[in-house]
UniProtKB/TrEMBL annotation:
GO molecular function list: carbohydrate derivative binding; DNA binding; DNA-binding transcription factor activity
Database matches in PROSITE patterns: HTH_RPIR, SIS
Protein's cellular compartments: Membrane
Pfam families listed in its UniProt record: HTH_6, SIS
PANTHER family for the chain: GLUCOKINASE (PTHR30514), TRANSCRIPTIONAL REGULATOR (PTHR30514:SF20)
Cited InterPro entries: Homeodomain-like_sf, HTH_RpiR, RpiR-like, RpiR-like_SIS, SIS_dom, SIS_dom_sf, WH-like_DNA-bd_sf
Name of protein: Putative transcriptional regulator of the myo-inositol catabolic operon
Source species of the chain: Candidatus Burkholderia verschuerenii
Membrane topology type: Single-pass membrane protein
Length: 293
């Protein structure tokens, strides 16, 4: 058993310990750590075997994970989450489980309207979780960074490319210089080379985390630029070294297809908050006579 003390008082304290130890964990225990970070409200109810199946590990790995952080077994670790989450957002979690059960129990062909309604309901649940989990301090920090940036670069690959393209489109409605790192022709390295101190790189990536996106974040840091990461976990390789991080921990999903609703909503909220901030700056400049039409 690890020497870590079991006097954990909160979920946040436990997750902080997990984050600090994450790099030194074996691969199987890293998978368990990521699962727990992404499923905080349900960990108290999940069976060890279910977690193991979701992580692709043996159930003993889940027990070893708990012991690594000083617990005698996984049920003791669950007690920390049970104390924090019992009575909190219970109806939301039950609703989420109800949607999944409804899908699993469907017999025969499902109509297009049923598919649409179930997907919309799942997306709505994801939005509720986004609102509940929004970090006010990190969001304000993100807006501050973008408002002060000389250039804004945006990177997102594969599933995240649509979101990256959208936020570039939205940000181009401000007076900021905005650049999409598209990697066209395989030229990620060349496109990120011009990033410098005073710029901000927005990186959007979810598990299993695009290697191209990770490279661009490292390059931005090397050149002294700030990084705003939109991802799914504090244990994400991008989030652990970001200047600011915003999390979409669980998108709504139905029929094994993950929605982009929550991620797009977060990006729209970020743009609107930035535009509002810039407009306030303009009005303040007009009042002091420093704004030139």
């Amino acid at each position: 058993m690890d020497d870590t003390s079991t006097d954990v008082q909160s979920v946040d304290e436990l997750m902080q310990r997990i984050t600090e130890a994450y790099d030194s964990l074996p691969r199987q225990l890293k998978s368990v750590a990521t699962y727990i970070e992404q499923h905080r409200p349900s960990v108290m109810m999940d069976r060890t075997s279910d977690i193991a199946t979701a992580c692709g590990v043996h159930p003993s790995a889940v027990v070893r994970f708990a012991q690594r952080f000083g617990f005698s077994g996984f049920s003791d670790l669950q007690a920390v989450f049970r104390q924090a989450y019992t009575g909190a957002s219970g109806s939301q979690q039950t609703y989420q489980q109800r949607i999944r059960k409804l899908i699993d129990d469907k017999a025969g062909e499902v109509s297009g309207v049923s598919v649409a309604r179930e997907f919309i309901a799942a997306s709505r649940t994801g939005l509720d979780e986004l609102e509940d989990g929004l970090d006010d301090e990190q969001f304000d920090m993100a807006v501050d960074m973008l408002s002060q940036a000389e250039n804004i670069y945006v990177i997102g690959v594969r599933r995240s490319f649509a979101v990256a393209s959208y936020i570039v489109y939205a940000l181009q409605h401000t007076k900021k210089r905005v650049h999409l790192i598209s990697g066209i022709g395989g030229m990620f390295r060349e496109q990120v080379r011009s990033v410098k101190k005073g710029d901000v790189v927005i990186a959007i990536s979810f598990a299993p985390y695009g290697k191209e996106t990770q490279y661009c974040v490292r390059a931005a840091q090397h050149h002294g630029a700030k990084t705003l990461v939109i991802t799914d976990s504090q244990l994400s390789p991008l989030a652990r070294h970001a200047s600011a991080s915003l999390f979409v921990k669980k998108e709504g999903s139905a029929f094994a297809f993950r929605s982009l609703t929550s991620t797009i909503c977060l990006c729209q909220a970020l743009f609107i908050a930035l535009a509002y901030r810039l407009e306030l700056n303009v009005e303040e400049s007009k009042e002091t006579g420093g704004y030139d039409d």
